[in-house]
Amino acid sequence: xxxxxxxxxxxxxxxxxxxxxxxxxxxxxxxxxxxxxxxxxxxxxxxxxxxxxxxxxxxxxxxxxxxxxxxxxxxxxxxxxxxxxxxxxxxxxxxxxxxxxxxxxxxxxxxxxxxxxxxxxxxxxxxxxxxxxxxxxxxxxxxxxxxxxxxxxxxxxxxxxxxxxxxxxxxxxxxxxxxxxxxxxxxxxxxxxxxxxxxxxxxxxxxxxxxxxxxxxxxxxxxxxxxxxxxxxxxxxxxxxxxxxxxxxxxxxxxxxxxxxxxxxxxxxxxxx
Length: 273
Fold this sequence. Notes:
Largest sheet: 10 strands, antiparallel
Shape: globular
Strand order of the largest sheet: 3-2-1-10-9-8-7-6-5-4
CATH topology: outer membrane lipoprotein receptor (LolB), chain A
CATH architecture: Clam
Number of strands: 10
Strand content: 35-45%
C-alpha cells in the first residue's frame, strides 16, 4: 500500500509540475508573441476582404458639437456622404447651424474623402503599427482581443491607443486613442473613439467621438453618428458626382420624404454615445 501511495504522489507531482511548466512557457513571451502575430495577420486579411466587398452606398450623418459642462447647448450639422467603390467618396452638408462648427465638420469630411482614396495610410497593419496583446474583453456581446496600438511614425491619422478585434471575424469593433502627431496649435489632449458594425453586409465605422481642449475655448466634444443608410442602385451610381466637396445645401421637403420612406432600422441599431 505504501508503494502504491508513493507512486500516486509521484504521478500527481509530475502532472502538477507539467501544468506549471505550461503556464510559465505561455507567459514567458514567445507563445504570446506568436498569438499577436496570428491575430494581426487575420485582422489585416479581414480588413482587406471587407473593403473588397464594399458596394455603393449613401449615409446620412449627424454631427453634434458641445462643451461637456453645457451638453444642452449643442451646435449641429447634418451631412450626406456617398461612397462609390473602390475609393471615391463625396459629401454635401444638408443642414447646419453654421459658424466655426460647420467649418470643422467640412474640414473633417474633406480629409475623410482624401483618406478613402488610399486606405493604406490609416490601415491597422504592421506597416503602420506595432501591436501588443493587452488581453480579452466582451464588447457588444462579442469576445474581443484587445490590441495595444503603437504608431511606427508620427502622423495625424495614426492613433496611440487600443483596438478591440472580434475574436470570430477578426474585424475591428472599436478603436480609441490619441493622434501620434499634434492635429493643430489650437487643439490639445485630443482623444478619439471609433465604433464599427455590420451595415448591409459591410463592416463600417458608424459612430465616432472626439474630445479635445480647444485653445481659448476650453473642453469641447464632437460626436458623429450615422443615422440612415441606403444602398445606391445602378441609376443612383450613374448620377452620382464623386467630387470631394459639394456646396452646402439645406433640407428640402423632397429630401425629407425620401429619407422617411427608406429603412429606419439602421438608426435604431446605433449605439448611444
